[in-house]
């Protein structure tokens, strides 16, 4: 495994690095061979294949609540670009291709972002909650995740965690994208909306699912690195069952390594 020791990169290196990787992404979007999902449908498909919801407002240590409220504003704008999108067989869903850049001109406001393990603010901040949700519900469908980036830093300790560590997908326009391909024979529709308290996501289709899925972790451990920091590791797997609850597949999904930004033996919530 490549060392996760934090590196100090100059502002110039970061600036030109972003320019380079963004240009590569634009080339993939507009000159590549993939067929991207772009059409939306207001009518919802009848069958819910997978659904999940996450809490909108959480009191996080050292994070002002106004950032949480601004996040909701940003989520509302981004959801308008994604809600109802139809992913036909052979098509690829691209998170950033549909959302576009998160600029003030579009109404985005400052929200919480994580930059090299530090909580800071930036226009459009908070959208990782949306990419995390889409990734999680996708793992409970036959759709294939083709591109996903793990969080490099584990910023907050577990508090009432209902999902395995490392089951999210970080995002940064446009080079850290979430891409999902439909290799099935039917179209899927992404449905997203907000309630008063939660962000809700659904993958829908015309026909009911013929499988159920269980996502779980293996090999969870915390290591003390030679440079003095702690790193958290695990592997994510997925069991697939038929409708008679018989196991038909058990597959590796992803491996995670994240620098811990809190004391590793902390067991109580700091949120």
Write a structural description.
This protein is α+β, with helices and mostly antiparallel strands. It has helices spanning 11-31, 65-82, 95-99, 128-138, and strands at 47-55, 86-87, 92-94, 110-115, 118-123, 144-147, 153-154, 179-181, 188-194, 198-205, 211-224, 230-242, 247-260. A four-stranded antiparallel β-sheet has the order 1-10-9-2. It has a four-stranded mixed β-sheet with strand order 7-13-12-11, with no helix packed on it. It has a three-stranded antiparallel β-sheet with strand order 3-8-6. The longest helix has 21 residues, at 11-31. It is globular and about 50 Å long. Residues 267-271 have low confidence and may be disordered.
Query: Which structural class fits the helix and strand makeup?
Result: alpha+beta
- Adjacency order of strands in the biggest sheet: 1-10-9-2
Along the chain, the helix and strand elements come as HEHEEHEEHEEEEEEEE
Average pLDDT for all residues: 91
Which parts are unreliable, with pLDDT below 50 for 5 consecutive residues or more? 267-271
What is the beta-strand fraction? Answer: 25-35%
Q: Number of DSSP helices? A: 4
Radius of gyration: 19 Å
DSSP helix fraction: 10-25%
Largest sheet features: 4 strands, antiparallel
């Amino acid at each position: 495994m490549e060392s996760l020791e934090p590196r100090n990169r100059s502002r110039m290196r970061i600036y030109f690095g972003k320019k380079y990787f963004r240009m590569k992404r634009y080339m993939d979007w507009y000159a590549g061979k993939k067929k991207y999902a772009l059409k939306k449908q207001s009518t919802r498909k009848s069958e819910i294949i997978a659904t999940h919801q996450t809490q909108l407002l959480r009191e996080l240590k050292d994070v002002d609540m106004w950032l949480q409220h601004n996040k909701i504003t940003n989520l509302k704008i981004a959801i308008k670009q994604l809600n109802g999108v139809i992913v036909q067989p052979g098509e690829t869903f691209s998170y950033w291709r549909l959302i576009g850049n998160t600029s003030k001109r579009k109404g985005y406001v400052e929200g919480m972002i994580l930059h090299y393990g530090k909580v800071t603010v930036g226009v459009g901040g908070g959208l990782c909650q949306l990419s995390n949700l889409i990734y999680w519900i996708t793992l409970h469908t036959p759709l294939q995740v083709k591109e996903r980036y793990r969080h490099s830093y584990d910023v907050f300790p577990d508090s009432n965690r209902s999902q395995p560590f490392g089951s999210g997908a970080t995002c940064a326009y446009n080079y850290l994208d979430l891409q999902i391909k439909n290799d099935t024979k039917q179209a899927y529709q992404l449905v997203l909306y907000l309630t008063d308290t939660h962000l809700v996501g659904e993958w829908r289709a015309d026909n009911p699912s013929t499988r159920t899925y269980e996502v779980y972790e293996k090999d969870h451990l915390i290591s003390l690195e030679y440079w003095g920091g702690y790193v958290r590791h695990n592997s994510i797997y997925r069991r697939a069952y038929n409708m008679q609850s018989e196991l038909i597949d058990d597959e590796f999904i992803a491996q995670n390594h994240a620098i811990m930004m809190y004391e590793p033996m902390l067991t109580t919530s700091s949120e």
